[in-house]
Design goal:
The structure is a homodimer of 456-residue chains. Chain A has 14 helices and 18 strands. With 456 residues, the first copy, chain A, is α+β, with helices and mostly antiparallel strands. Chain A has 2 domains: 2-194 and 365-452, Aminopeptidase; 196-250 and 296-359, Alpha-Beta Plaits, CATH 3.30.70. In chain A, helix 1 crosses helix 3 (116-134), helix 3 (116-134) crosses helix 14 and helix 4 packs parallel to helix 13 (400-409). At the A-B interface, strand 10, helix 6, helix 7, helix 10 and strand 11 of A face strand 10, helix 6, helix 7, helix 10 and strand 11 of B.
């Protein structure tokens, strides 16, 4: 490791400067006027990777291109897909930025710019880790396949198609994504689980037209009231989901997880203050972290019906609807869960209305076992890079790319999150600590080494 | 009465033709391009009233003018305000009309045109009844004050102001409005009660911003779910309103009313078929007519919160809201009822949310006692005109003008409804039966005579 440390130390200033240069490219994927900038960012990466010994290829898609590169000389060693994205979020509201989003500013060891944390900085940590091995014709301890896309901020529009078409080329033993966060400042974390998602839309239909609430009020069931009564019955008094069979397949939280989560310095008071709520609320018998990371939930994302404009319109509406997403834990099947919800809703609906449920395709949860050698390698890597053992955490949201890798390539993903959870990823004044950037480079170096010990 | 009958018979063809002429004027108050037509309709009425012996005045308002005329020569006799409106609804969707809305067509004794029933035909029934007395310098048996407005279809924007400013001029003993319907074909009805209205808007506020339903789902109460649970608690299992004290002031339905309503040929099957609902639903212990006419109700007119657009946006929303109107029966105070609702909502709200209730000004119910001499006069009038005793009915909606007359002039209103309940008042192919038109003229003649017997 000494040799690698030396290289990193000698080049660290240059690494910082390279990141600054990369961040100057306004590669906003959502805005057509930045199409050229997206390509410039892709070419920047291609050129850099070429310099350190790759033969990268820009692969066109109907949208923004994907940069692909591989280095497959470590015979008998694991092959790792390393994913990142070079596109960034739009900058609005621009007036809330303390400095221009594409003129990176370094202040107190922190670099401020759009894309600093999400994901250019984290992506470059891997590039520099690779470079640390490969400079002067050196060899990597593992085989790598790099996939850097330009459409992550616009729902990875063409990534699935690319992966599906190139399954043979992308065949790997695992994947690494650095596009998540630590638990907090100096609190490195290994995210080993993500929740899945099962979305659907519900419509409750009453009379065939909007009625005058004076002339008809009292004569027929109001679809809004009926929908509300049904939504009220989706949770019981303990805030458990009341849908029959909902918990049948749920993977219970393990004892070690409860212990691990309990160790985390989660400040409920600060959390409440941040959200300006009087109380936190969720399923009885679980802590807040358990509830949002490792227990399934059901939320209405939207509700609508009748007159929603300014002032009064005294209708008894024909229908009311809502959008629901359920967040799933491992072993739950998104299709089955939507079917259960539909059956339950139709069962509790009164005869006065008709219920329509439109199911949207979801995704299962993702989890990697603590005993999986890739996670052991990741733990050691973070411990080296950050100087302390990482926390084992889960995340309540989904990362579609992780599901794609699992489904199409059959691989688990290491989520090596390097930035801070409050890094303003999609907001003004996005930042990335240079200390975290450097720790990330060192962690990645150790990760590749550790992975090379793995039997394949 | 013989003399009046003769005059009506001799002139009936001319009355029909006058109505056709009046209906040819496209006096759509909502559309600025018809401003001139509105005035033309007002002038048409002025000219006709002048010919039969009135000295009408066009009174300007910031909007469309009000036509006022009086005849006050029946000393010691009651003074009646007769209200009508000469403006009409827009004609869209125009392609659903079987004939052009402003080219009246008479088919099988029915006149089809915009405004035929609402309200030109009903208004002209009174004009011709007045003419029946006044032609050739004849005298009216009562004193009358005619108020014909041009803004009824745009919420009577300037009527209240006009009445408020001219209370002395408009001083009367009662009012008559012919702008409602019979109960059905050949089923004349006397509407003696209207429900009041108490509107408000409710907002349930949770976290200070929309949250990611994956990252936060399970941690905090969802304002949509909370609002729904609260709405679900607004009615009990018997569909009674669960707000504490809500029924305290309610005027109970009288035995004679239940008997009267039960006599009505109300076809529940046809009603369900028309609305395409499987069942009718309302407060336990009451029939459908009782529920919508004589019992208070509470309806959500609209509900909204979170993401309401196409597709998915997986937010746990910051707030959710709804619009509520309560329909009131006599003795209930709209302000008190809103206060009770607010108190109840705040009482049942969990500590996880904040509840805001915005109260909008409402109106009390209106009812005229069956024993009131004006209602006795009206009953006799309809019996003469239609050849059978009218049903005594109530109506679930409100008529703001009736409330204005009560509040500002202290008078009760006879609702002498002449058209059919399915007359397409605001829809394509609006119609008015010429038989009902003629019966209306005769009823009005008898009404004025009967009212002249009343002591004042």
């Amino acid at each position: 490791m000494k040799e690698h440390e030396e290289y990193i130390s000698q080049n660290i200033k240059r690494f910082d400067n390279t990141l600054v240069e990369f961040l100057q490219i306004p590669s906003v994927s959502a805005q057509p006027e930045h199409k050229k900038d997206i390509r410039a960012a892709c070419e920047f990466l291609r050129n850099y990777l070429s310099r350190i010994g790759f033969s990268p290829r820009i692969i066109e898609t109907p949208g923004h291109p994907i940069l692909y590169a591989e280095h497959l000389k470590a015979e008998g060693k694991p092959t790792t897909l390393i994913y990142g994205h070079y596109d960034v979020q739009p900058v609005d509201p621009i007036h809330l930025w303390d400095s221009p989003p594409f003129i990176p500013v370094i202040k107190d060891g922190i670099i401020y710019a759009r894309g600093a944390a999400d994901d250019k900085g984290q992506l470059m940590a891997h590039v520099h880790a690779l470079e640390t091995f490969m400079h002067n014709g050196g060899e990597l301890p593992i085989n790598v396949k790099l996939v850097f896309e330009g459409e992550e901020e616009i729902a990875s529009l063409h990534l699935d198609e690319f992966i599906e078409k190139n399954q043979e080329m992308l065949k790997s033993d695992l994947a690494i994504i650095s596009d998540t966060a630590q638990f907090g400042k100096d609190m490195p974390a290994l995210t080993y689980g993500l929740r899945g998602i099962a979305p659907c839309e519900v419509k409750v239909i009453g009379p065939n037209r909007d009625l005058h609430s004076g002339s008809y009020g009292g004569a027929v069931a109001n679809p809004i009231t009926v929908l509300c009564s049904m939504i009220a019955k989706l949770h019981d008094n303990d805030n458990r989901i009341a849908v029959d069979g909902f918990y049948d397949d749920v993977m219970p939280i393990q004892d070690w997880e409860r212990e691990e989560f309990a160790k985390l310095p989660f400040d409920e008071m600060a959390y409440k203050r941040d959200l300006e709520v009087n109380e936190l609320l969720g399923e009885k018998g679980y802590t807040t972290l358990e509830r949002k990371w490792a227990r399934p939930t059901l939320d209405c994302n939207g509700i609508f019906g009748g007159y929603m404009g300014e002032g009064q319109k005294t209708v008894l509406p024909s229908w009311a609807g809502c959008k629901i997403t359920m967040r799933l834990v491992p072993k739950m099947d998104p299709v089955k869960v939507c079917d259960l919800l539909e059956a339950y809703l139709k069962q509790i609906a009164p005869p006065s209305v008709r219920v329509e449920v439109t199911k949207v395709s979801g995704a299962p949860a993702a989890i990697v076992s603590r005993d999986n050698p890739i996670m052991q390698a990741a733990e050691k890597a973070l411990e080296y890079g950050f100087g302390r053992k990482p926390f084992w955490i889960r995340e309540g949201g989904s990362i579609p790319t992780v599901n794609t890798f699992k489904e199409l390539l059959g691989v688990d993903t290491i989520l090596l999150g390097l930035c801070q959870p409050d890094c303003n990823a999609h907001s003004p004044n996005e930042f990335f600590g240079l200390d975290d950037f450097h720790r990330g480079i060192r962690s990645a170096v150790v990760l590749y080494k550790e992975l090379s010990e793995m039997k394949v």
